[in-house]
Amino acid sequence: MNQVGMIQAHISKNFPAGPESAGFRLDVQFDANPGVTVLYGPSGSGKTLTLDAIAGFVQPDAGRILLGNRILYDGGAKVHLLPRERACGYVFQNYALFPHMSVRENLAFAAHGLPRLERHRRIAELLERFKLTDLAGRYPRELSGGQKQRASIARALIAEPQALLLDEPGRGLDASLRADLYAVILEMKASLRIPMLLVTHDQDECFALADHVLLFSAGRILHRGAPLDLLRNPGTPAVASLLGDFNLYEAEILTLDPGRQTSRIRMFGQDMNGPHLRGCFKGARVTLCARPEELHLVTKAGDNRVRVHQASLLERPHAVRADFGNGLIIDVPRETWREKPDDLWVEIPPGSLRQLRPES
Amino acid sequence: MAAPSPLPIDWFPLWLSLEVAACATLISLALGIWLAWLLANRHFTGKEILDALTTLPLALPPTVLGYYLLVVIGRNSWLGGAWESLTGSPLIFTWRAAVIASTLHAIPLLVKSSRAALESVDHACERAGRSLGASEWRIFWHVSLPLARRPIAAATALAFARSLGDFGATLMIAGDIPGRTQTAAIAIFDAVESGNTRVARTLVIVISLVTAGIVFLANRLERRHSA
Question: Fewest Cβ atoms closer than 10 Å to its Cβ: which of A10, A88, A241, A300?
Answer without folding.
Answer: A300
